[in-house]
Each structure stands twice: as structure tokens, then as C-alpha cells.
Design a protein that fits this description.
single chain, 94 residues, alpha+beta, Arc Repressor Mutant, subunit A, 3-stranded antiparallel beta sheet, 4 helices, globular
């Protein structure tokens, strides 16, 4: 096997998610089939290939809650463009 294929823990560390999340990505088809190999009950992942595949998704990344970041940015951007920041708005406690 090539050194390019790593265990699930390395993928989780790379993307700062849990191992469970990586396994969900696999079940939901978010990790392309050619980016991993299964030997028995063990999976090995092409980390560089997965990273490249994620970066080539037209900037529509999904969060754990299946909410498109692009949709969020569009919604928040519309709301925030209507808000006027005044001198006193920086003094508010959040």
C-alpha cells in the first residue's frame, strides 16, 4: 500500500473533526470513492486527494448540520448590508 493512504484518525486531525464525522462523510458520499480503500474492516484514506476534492466543491462546503456555508453567507450578508453601524454600537455588551 502506498504511503499516501492514512488511517481515519489522520483525516479527522487534518480537518479538525471527530472520527465519527469522517465516517459520516464516507457514508453520505462526501468522500469520493477513489479517495479511500477498504481492506477487510479497515479503511485507508488519500488525505491529499480528499483535501483537493473538498477545495474543488465550488465553495459550497457543508457543515455538520447540513447547512451550506454559501447559503449562510448570502443570508447574513443580506441582513448585515442593511444594518448601519454607529459609534455607539461598539459599546454594546453581547
Amino acid at each position: 500500500m502506498s504511503d499516501n493512504f492514512v488511517p481515519v484518525g489522520d483525516v479527522a486531525d487534518k480537518f479538525s473533526v471527530s472520527i465519527h464525522t469522517v465516517r459520516q462523510w464516507l457514508r453520505k458520499g462526501k468522500i469520493p470513492a477513489d479517495m479511500y480503500v477498504k481492506i477487510g474492516n479497515t479503511y485507508r484514506y488519500n488525505l491529499k486527494g480528499i483535501e483537493k476534492a473538498f477545495l474543488n466543491t465550488n465553495k459550497e462546503y457543508k457543515c455538520g448540520a447540513d447547512f451550506h456555508v454559501k447559503e449562510f453567507n448570502d443570508t447574513v450578508g443580506d441582513t448585515m448590508s442593511k444594518y448601519e453601524f454607529g459609534a455607539d454600537s461598539a459599546d454594546e455588551d453581547f
